[in-house]
Design goal:
This protein is mainly alpha-helical. The protein is about 50% helix and about 5% strand. A hairpin with a 5-residue loop joins strand 1 and strand 2. The longest helix has 16 residues.
């Protein structure tokens, strides 16, 4: 499974909001800190907003904030919002007409990945970011 640039840059943007949790952060600030274009970042922020992970603040000094504490947002929530629920094979999303013998492998892999990501909180990955 390969994650798209949406996940990489979206997660970086969420980290930026997490470390500045009490502030409203502009798209320009996020774009500069994540080395992302503002136009692309706006697309990602729209997805994250629809998922209820961030809120937008209008007007002068406007921008974005996390909708909840970074201690309460899982990496799984973020990646599923950005990657269409992380369903990497058709049968996981119910698109197969019948379940093949490999279905249990795909389902176990999907469950394991999601459980792992759900147990990883946003704040945990952002605090260790300086080491990258």
């Amino acid at each position: 499974m390969k994650l798209s640039s949406k996940s990489r840059y979206g997660l970086k943007a969420m980290c930026e909001l997490a470390v500045k949790y009490d502030e409203v952060v502009s798209t320009l600030q996020i774009a500069e800190s994540t080395s992302t274009s503002e136009a692309y970042l706006e697309q990602l922020m729209a997805i994250l907003k629809r998922a209820g992970l961030i809120v937008s603040i209008r007007g002068a000094g406007g921008g974005y904030k996390l909708a909840r504490s970074p201690y309460d947002i899982s990496v799984g929530e973020i990646l599923r919002a950005l990657e269409d629920d992380l369903k990497f094979v058709e049968c996981i999303s119910g698109e197969c007409e019948k379940k093949c013998k490999c279905y249990t492998v795909w389902q176990k892999l999907y469950d394991t990945i999601n459980n792992s990501l759900d147990n990883m909180k946003l704040i945990e990955i952002c605090e260790g970011e300086e080491n990258e």
